[in-house]
Every structure is written in structure tokens, then in C-alpha cells.
Write a structure and sequence with these properties.
Layout: H1 3-9, H2 23-33, E1 46-50, H3 52-67, H4 83-99, H5 107-118, E2 125-132, H6 133-136, H7 140-157, E3 162-166, H8 173-180, E4 186-195
Antiparallel strand pairs: 1-2, 2-4, 3-4
Helix pairs in contact: 2-7, 3-5, 3-8
Bound molecules: flavin mononucleotide (FMN).
Flavin mononucleotide is lined by residues 11-12, 14, 92, 117, 164-168, 190, 208.
Length: 221
């Protein structure tokens, strides 16, 4: 896919076909993504690819903790947005709930939707992006992680795959690390659901909402 087309076409996919993603394809995507830039070329990213039993374990732990109301303790704190950022967050949630026909007062369905998110939206594969604790303390590394995540999401399009970048899936890092046998010293920055999009799934019909360019740019000189 052409680059500009890919940047504009990428959107978060929250409903997937059950078809498995070949290991070779996942490998190629990560092989492309490792070409991403990073501060002083430190390449702080490590990828944990989840499929099969491991993915089921991760889904189970996440959904169970979420449903039981366990307190979250993410390595990157969950933001508490205010002002226009909070408004955009609410608008997104409202739009998804409307598409999914989930009424505001229907706590059960909202909880089910939350649990689906915790299960990587039932994607057939997922990727966790980890950083070793030594690099994690440097804020610049989080920019590197953001770059590599977007590169993965764009590269996936080349193989007909969709993705959803997800912070929610790393809200319980200690339990997830235990379930997956990952070392204590890894910090879980972000996750990514990946699979073949189900274009009939209502939430996938969400349009991309963006601020007009004029609201974002200040020209000097
Ligand atoms: C850092 C980051 C964290 C995100 N976490 C979640 C998440 O936990 N759950 C979710 O459904 N989407 C998540 N998203 C997807 C955003 O909601 C989405 O990118 C945004 O609404 C713009 O829509 P688009 O990706 O379709 O263009 C996240 C995206 C980013 C960049």
C-alpha cells in the first residue's frame, strides 16, 4: 500500500475475523518495524507476540481482573483527561457505544464491551511492547515506543491486517507477566491487537475524527 494512503487508511479495528495470522507475517511486520528511529539509536523496544495458548492466558487474566474490579497498576499511568481532551474521550466512547447499540444505563453490556477490549477485542494475535526497566525511566524512550507502535500498525496494512493500539491490555502488568512467564524487569508499555478486520463489525465503522489542520498549526516567519 502506498505510504500516504496507508497513513490515512489506518484505523483502530475492534472486531476481527477468527482467521489466524501466519507467524511468518507477524515476523515480517516486526522486521519492518525494527527500522524505526529511536533516540541515540537506543532501540528500547522488545516485542512479545501472543498467539494460541499464551494469548488465551493473557485474555483470561486481563478479563478476569477487569470484571472483578481489581485495582489497576499500569507501568505507564492511565491519564485523567480534562477539558477538550476529556470531551474527545467522551465523544469517542459515545460513538462506539452507539455503533455497538450499548445504552448508557446498560452496565452489563458496557462491562462486556470492556472485557472484550481487555481480551484484545478477540483478535487472533497480539503484540506487547516491553521496555527493560533501565531504559523505562527515560521519558524519551516513550517517544520511541510510540513511533514503533505506529510503524507496526502501518506495516500491518501491507498484509491486509488491522490493529488496535491498546493501553487497556497492560493495565495489570504484574499479573500479565506472571501468566506469560515474562521477567520482572520488563515494563509493559502498550499492547496491540492484530488480525484480519471484520468489516461488518459495527465498531469498525467508526469514522476517523480529527481536528482541522488550521486548529493545530502555528506558522512563524
Ligand atoms: C497510546 C494509545 C492507547 C490506546 N489505547 C486504546 C485502548 O486501550 N482501547 C481502545 O479501544 N483503543 C485504544 N487506542 C485507540 C484510540 O482510541 C484511537 O487511536 C483513536 O480513537 C483514533 O482513532 P483511529 O485509531 O481509528 O484513527 C489507543 C491509541 C493510542 C495511540
Amino acid at each position: 500500500m502506498e505510504l500516504v494512503e496507508a497513513i490515512k487508511a489506518r484505523k483502530s479495528i475492534r472486531g476481527y475475523k477468527p482467521d489466524p495470522v501466519p507467524k511468518e507475517v507477524l515476523n515480517q511486520i516486526l522486521d519492518i518495524a525494527r527500522h524505526s528511529p529511536s533516540g541515540v539509536n537506543n532501540q528500547p523496544w522488545e516485542f512479545v507476540v501472543l498467539t494460541g495458548d499464551a494469548l488465551e492466558r493473557a485474555k483470561g487474566v486481563n478479563a478476569q481482573l477487569f470484571t472483578s474490579g481489581a485495582e489497576i497498576s499500569p507501568d505507564i499511568p492511565e491519564p485523567r483527561f480534562t477539558g477538550p481532551y476529556r470531551e474527545r474521550q467522551i465523544a469517542l466512547a459515545k460513538h462506539i457505544f452507539a455503533l455497538m447499540d450499548i445504552a448508557r444505563e446498560n452496565k452489563e453490556k458496557r462491562q462486556e464491551w470492556g472485557a472484550k477490549g481487555m481480551r484484545f477485542y478477540d483478535a487472533p494475535a497480539a503484540i506487547l511492547i516491553c521496555i527493560e526497566e533501565e531504559a523505562f525511566s527515560h521519558q524519551l524512550c516513550l517517544i520511541d515506543i510510540g513511533i514503533v507502535v505506529q510503524t507496526i500498525a502501518l506495516a500491518a496494512l501491507e498484509f491486509g491486517l488491522g490493529t488496535c493500539i491498546q493501553h487497556q491490555v497492560v493495565l495489570y502488568p504484574e499479573a500479565l507477566k506472571r501468566a506469560l512467564g515474562l521477567p520482572e524487569s520488563k515494563r509493559l508499555a502498550i499492547g496491540l491487537a492484530i488480525g484480519y478486520p471484520d468489516w461488518d463489525f459495527p465498531a469498525n465503522k467508526i469514522p476517523k475524527e480529527r481536528e482541522p489542520l488550521d486548529n493545530l498549526v502555528t506558522w512563524k516567519g
